Structures are given as C-alpha cells and as structure tokens.
Amino acid sequence: MRWSGQRAAGPGLATVDAHSGYAVLLVTQLVVGTGVGAALTTIVSLTMHDVPPDDSGVAGALTNATQQIGGAVGISLLNVLALTVTGTAADSRSADALTSGYSAAFLTGAGLLAAAALIAWTALRGSRAGQGTARPRSST
C-alpha cells in the first residue's frame, strides 16, 4: 500500500494530450485522486508511527501544515512551468500549445513523484535494516 499511491499518481499525470476526450480525463483524474489519497494516508501513518502520545497533536499539525504548504508551492511552480512552455510556443493560443505546457508540468510532476518514491523507498529500506539493532526507549 505504501508505494501504490505514488505508482498510481505518476502515470496518470502524463497520459493527456491535445486530443484526449472527457473519458480519458475522467479516468486520469480518478487514478491521480486515488494515488494521492493513498500516498497522503501513508505519509500521515508513517509520521505518526514513532511519536509519543503527548506530542501527537503537534506532529499531526506539522504534517498537515507541511502538506498544505508543499502542495500550494508545488502547484504554483508547476503552473509557472506550464505557462512558460505555453507562452514560448509559436501559436500560444492553440490547443496544442496549451496542452504542451500542461504536459511539461505533468511530466515534471510525474518525475518528482518518482524521485519521492525512490527517496522514500531508500529511507524505509534503511530503517528496516536497523530494526534488528534498535534499543528499547528509556522511560525517563
């Protein structure tokens, strides 16, 4: 379940072109929504796993704030990329130019998701290797 969110969201972002119909857009949005929902649920679960009960409110608030700020900044940067690519096209008012801008943003987003999945996989793999040598927490 950990990787299903990022695996489902990445390909969904990169499948739309200028001649895609509404059915393709519907399926793409369902795949992306499912992938992002699964990924965010996993992120919250992982961040709250080792948090002491007294600090769970702060950890949950920090996780949610980080997701909101990261999402807003990420969408803003991807929109700037899409507008830049669209604006540099020969006929910037055509559907092909607009779609090429969005495709560049979607492919960049898919690449960032792949990089995030690789980083998470590496980090979790390292934490699993160290589980056999972990010491119990002190009660002080």
Question: In a few lines, what is going on in this structure?
Answer:
This protein is mainly alpha-helical and about 140 residues long. It has helices spanning about 5-15, 20-50, 55-85, 95-130. About 15% of the residues are buried.
Walkthrough of the structure:
This protein has helices at 4-13, 22-48, 56-87, 95-129. With 140 residues, it is mainly α. The mean pLDDT is 79.
Task: Describe the structure using short key phrases.
about 140 residues; mainly alpha; 4 helices; elongated
Strand tally is 0
Give the distance, in angstroms, between the N- and C-terminal Cα atoms. Answer: 35 Å
Radius of gyration: 19 Å
Strand content: under 5%
Count of alpha/pi helices: 4
The gross shape turns out to be elongated
The helix content, as a percent range, equals: over 70%
Overall pLDDT confidence: 79
Main beta sheet: none
Q: Low-confidence parts lasting 5 or more residues at pLDDT below 50?
A: none
Classification by helices and strands: mainly alpha
The ordered H/E elements are HHHH
Secondary-structure map with pairings?
Blueprint: H1 4-13, H2 22-48, H3 56-87, H4 95-129
Helix pairs in contact: 1-2, 1-4, 2-3, 3-4
